[in-house]
Amino acid sequence: MKKTTFASIVSACMVPALFWSTEGSAIPSWARKYQVSCYMCHSGMPQRNAVGEAFKNNGYRLPGGNDEAFTRQKNIKIGTADWDSKFPNAPISASYPQFDPLSVVLTGNLINYKEATHYVSTGAPKAAKEFTINAANTASLFIGATVGDNLTIFGELAGFGGAALEEDTDNGAISSSNVDSPVTANVRAVWQFSPGFNFAIGNSFSAVGWNGTGAGGVANIGSVLPGPATYAELNFTRGETGGYSIVAGTSMAANYRTPIVATENHIDDILYLRGKLKLFGAGLLSGANGELGNAYNGLDNQLSIGAGLSYANKKNSYTTSGSLVAGAPTVGFTGNYAGETLVYGGDVQGAYHDLLVGGAYSRDRDLKLDNIRVEAGYFVYPWLFAKVGYVDIAKGNNEIATKKGKADVHQPQIIPSISAWITPSVSLTGTYTIFTKSSDVSSTGNFTNQNTFALAVRAGF
Q1: Does the residue 349 lie in any domain?
Q2: Is residue 429 in a domain?
Q3: Smallest Cα–Cα separation from 170: which of 305, 323, 357, 334?
Q4: Where in the sequence is the domain holding 199, given as residue range(s)?
Q5: Whose CA is closest to 218, among 391, 80, 91, 85?
Q6: DSSP state of 322
Q7: Please, are residues 168 and 175 in contact by the beta-carbon 8 Å criterion?
Q8: For 16, left (φ over 0), alpha (ψ -120 to 50), or beta?
Q9: Which of 49, 135, 142, 241 is deepest in the core (most CB within 10 A)?
Q10: Global model pTM greater than 0.85
Q11: What is the pLDDT of residues 308-332, one digit of tens each?
């Protein structure tokens, strides 16, 4: 197999930039630091390619010891050699980003359409169809910076602006955020002991998921397992060609958006483990060696398999009728996985030239609910990506599972979508969510599911 240097990868990944004006294209934080196109690490934002995966695995630094060589905006060094020699063990010297570590991302639905719903039993209208036109109305401030030789901070201040309609990554449905939702801080701080061996703490951006399920990505285990909230995790990665990674972590059950109850929430409320094996393709740690595949969209020909599990020490507090106890502290899993103590599953993902395919499956120990996500995507052009997915994420709360029957919690959906990148960091995504079942069981009646179309914009600066 032909060995390829990292320098040649940087050159190859610049090819897609020719499809757009290079003026002002590479604008987010990391692109400014290295002065490269976003396509160096992404196959259409926010999907990471092999170089982007290796960048993350190396503690958000370029692999192979090339970070310093490719940094165009050097860090400012604080301290002098005299101080270092006089106080060799004192934390006097450091370095801070000279480049602007802040990026702004605007998101929102330009168009949102919902079909009318009716009562199944009588056929009477329940809700009229909706059609709205809007602009990007939610802003996030991203921070990405290396501090010294080992520490990297990656974070997001989210929630600026009004309500936003966006895809729910748990079940593929379109949901609306709260108009009065407060600004929240999502932070991931990574300490690199050595290339591929990192310790991270944070409340978002966990390494248990890879490549994402958003625009440009296909199914992975992160979409069918509960995600950690406030966590601490170790990430160990190896692979100059192909390779493997292991992520082990522990998390508080309390979400960062809710108060943490000190007497009820502990750092070991949730334990999780994720393993990934890349059978062939660009190395998980090098990002450059192996079969590269398609340089125009940044994909390498590869096949990866993974597995993971999440274990909750406690369950949520329920009454005998199956309802959540009012005012009870948040412990164990929440949302679709409320009431579970163990969820486990596996996934597979492959890429060949312009085609991506992936599938993920999980099952729980308590309610014995099956979750599945299968997706296939194709780059029509390097800037145009079409995808279709089948999603069935069971809603496992005790009330539905015990009183309505397991079959009622499954609401399978077919979700076709198409994404176009106007520039490497500005995209439009149209998504149509089609329910394959005619009704949704709820405590207030039996209603027809509501198919939805949304045209979303994402712009980074």
Answers
A1: yes
A2: no
A3: 334
A4: 6-91+98-107+146-379+393-409
A5: 391
A6: S
A7: yes
A8: alpha
A9: 49
A10: no
A11: 999 987 665 555 555 555 555 556 7
